[in-house]
């Protein structure tokens, strides 16, 4: 019967996740609840979970290792029906359970829904998207499948997430605005990469970068006001985010992108189109993920920093292939290696600090 219960717990977790529309707040609460009850281990082998869920499962499995129940689950959970199972693993109180004062207070912390088209932050995001699309029409054709698509996607995401954040729930507004802020910072990264390759001018960059900065400031101010008023008593993150341009790993990642473009423009790479595309994608992905990590929630920061490290690992493998083919030298590999090591060390330290912050 234990295997049946494991399967039921997994199905119930998937169902709850879909009902919550994959809200990171509900997912985290559900996983913590399963960890406290000693059954989070049943999710460890799920194949349809994202990296953020994997990180949380590992964290809570570690934090609540002593709680885990591996035998006689049916006896421990007192399972008699699927309804009882749902109640046993649900993070929500049953109808017969009276919610605490804290939860009653949170229920009242709702927002008034407004017409988002009148919101200055939305108007600025729409202006940014339009100008980015216009600018990208002059990019080289070989960048359409990557830089153009990526910068248009990130710019569009800002507007879309602001629109999705216009709802009654305080926590979900913070969630959607956090993603919008991350997308704005990612857009800045693609703009800097584009300027570095002279696809856009310094004046064009400054204009669009100023727009993204305005959007971030407006969203930050809006969240700050909500936290002080409607969000009192709620565990909401600080809405202020650092300027990614002051982050050492990000600046080194931009230098890495320039170096990769420089070497892949040489005639030795003319016959290696697949490798060229992969090298550029890994390098630019590293910079873009570092930028997008500069948002509100620790879990999301961790995820994007981790994706940057993955991009670096992929770059390492490709560069070794280039060395074997004789299209880059040992000296060039070492020069790039200095940047890679610096980025990896900064990100590893940052992620370690985030883990301590989360645990605290």
Automatic annotation (TrEMBL):
Top-level lineage group: Bacteria
Upper taxonomic lineage: Bacteria, Bacillati, Bacillota, Bacilli, Bacillales
NCBIfam families reported in the protein's UniProt record: four helix bundle protein (TIGR02436)
Pfam families in UniProt: 23S_rRNA_IVP (PF05635)
SUPFAM superfamilies: IVS-encoded protein-like
Ranges where the record places region Disordered: 88-109
InterPro entries reported for this sequence: 23S_rRNA-intervening_sequence, 23S_rRNA_IVS_sf
Name recorded for this polypeptide: Four helix bundle protein
